Amino acid sequence: MNHRHQETLKHLFKTPIDRSIDWWKIEHLFSALGAQMIESGTSRIKVILNDNEKTFSRPHHRHETNVKMVKAVRNFLEQCNITPNTLNPKSPTNQSTK
Fold first, then answer.
1. Which phi and psi (to 5°) does residue 54 adopt?
2. Burial class of residue 29 (count of CB atoms within 10 Å of its CB; 0-12, 13-18, 19+)
3. If you average pLDDT over residues 15-31, what whole number do you get?
4. Maximum CA extent, the chain
5. Fewest CB atoms within 10 A around its CB: which of 15, 29, 49, 69?
6. CA torsion 14→19→23→24, rounded to 10°?
7. What's the predicted TM-score (pTM) here?
């Protein structure tokens, strides 16, 4: 997972919710996490990740997400045990002190 994917993940878990995340960035994040994505219809995508699956509707007209969609993606990632802290833990024990 590269820096851009990590930034997208951080934005998904940001408070207050960032509703201006481009949907294609979320799809790229799913792909980087190893998710299987299945097109089902013109605007639906089924995402299978860590034995969990969820169908999302892509945004229409605008390519940015809304609050409801960000919450749905966030909840799905939490079900898959994926958060910014689980993928990049920065605890005091992992940092060197000199």
1. -150, 140
2. buried
3. 91
4. 56
5. 15
6. -60
7. 0.84
